[in-house]
Amino acid sequence: MNRKWVDNEVYFGPDRRQRDGGKRWGDRRRMNDATDPPPLGAVLRRLRIMLTDLGDPAKRQRAQQMVSLAILDANRLRNAAAADRLNQLGRLLLMKAPLSELEAKLMEVQEVA
Questions:
Q1: Closest C-alpha among 47, 38, 40, 36 to residue 112
Q2: Are 105 and 85 in contact (CB under 8 A)?
């Protein structure tokens, strides 16, 4: 698994570029903004901000991806309680639960993380 991380205005996640033969033709990033993965707390804070604006399906899908990332990170840290609560948060997102329920569940996650 690639351990570098990209966080910019277009993409937030693992660095998906190939390392074997240099840059691909379609890879036009000039600046290498790949760094180490963020800590779980940083991902949860970013998710909390994302939850305030879930107006369109694309933003809801992006929040779901952030929850999946946080679940992977919690499992990597062997924090089963946080991973379980994040799974519940992901289900609430899919069911389009109100913001108050989402924030309450996220607060539970932050308490055990």
A1: 40
A2: yes
Per-residue pLDDT, 91: 95
Residue 14 makes CB contacts below 8 A (sequence gap 6+) with 1, 2, 4, 5, 6, 37
pLDDT for residue 25: 62
Calpha distance 10→106 (Å, rounded): 24
Q: Output the six-digit token pair for 16.
A: 């998906």
Is residue 48 within 8 Å of 103, Cβ to Cβ?
yes
Structure tokens at 32: 């290498």
- How many angstroms separate the CA atoms of 44 and 50, rounded? 10
